[in-house]
Amino acid sequence: MMKLRLLAATLMAFMFMGLAACNAEDDPEETAAPDPPGEQPPPDEPPEEEEPPPPPPEEPPPCEDEDCRPLPQAMCAPQADFLPVIRGADGLNAMLFVSTRVRGRCDFCETGDPELLLNDNLLDSARLLLPADRGHIELTIYSSHPARGVRRAGFMVADTEGALSRRDRGLRIELLRYGRIIARGELDDDEVTLFDTGDSLRQLVMLEVEEERFDAIRLRVEARRDESRTLDVYAACVDRYGW
């Protein structure tokens, strides 16, 4: 009798274990083991804040110095803003001559061939070399008779050390009649205008003419006391042929 009771208890125990196993298979969520701490999904991160746009660039300060203002542009060539004073030019009815002269203490000053200024190749130039000294070089173009109606006259030049500015000293334009100076002006004078020719090399130094009849245009270049100076001169130029 005791054996039957033990057998019945054992069968009942197996039946309860089978029912528990079936319930576990039907509801896996209740029996699934929790995720270990290291494998939990990361919390939602807050969205990154957008960086503010960069401030607009500051405007440059106003230009109060003439050197930072762009130069007016003009060219010296046939049928251009200014006309070259050269032999054989259409509309120029005068004989032309050219000369150079060294004045003052400038024993080692040198000049290139000034006749190159009078030919029709505007890329030819006469180079003026002035070591540190106290003298100056004069380059003068003469005409056989005075010009009339010219309002601007000067030279097309190039400084080998860089562009000229109105601060440069020792460069003067002179107009003559019968050997006498009747008008003159330097770079820092109101009567002289410095033009950019647009080729990053040559510039025009032009003197305003006030009803003056002249028969010679002169470029005077002074030597510097503390450093040498080199200037290439390409041609004399006027706003119109008055000969």
Biggest sheet record? 7 strands, antiparallel
What is the overall silhouette?
Answer: elongated
The low-confidence parts are none
Structural class: mainly beta
Number-wise, the strands total 12
The end-to-end span amounts to 156 Å
Strand/helix succession: HHEEEEEEEEEEEE
Helical fraction equals 10-25%
Work out the helix count.
2
The average pLDDT is 84
CA radius of gyration = 47 Å
Describe the structure.
By secondary structure, this protein is mainly beta. It is 12% helix and 33% strand. It has helices spanning 2-26, 28-31; strands at 83-84, 96-103, 110-111, 126-130, 136-147, 152-159, 171-177, 180-186, 192-196, 203-208, 214-222, 229-238. The strands form two sheets. Strands 1, 3, 4, 6, 9, 10 and 12 form a seven-stranded antiparallel sheet that branches. It has a five-stranded antiparallel sheet with strand order 2-5-11-7-8, with no helix packed on it. Strand 9 and strand 10 (203-208) form a beta hairpin. The protein is elongated, with a radius of gyration of 47 Å. The mean pLDDT is 84.
Highlighted features:
243 residues, mainly beta, five-stranded antiparallel β-sheet, 2 helices, 12% helix, elongated
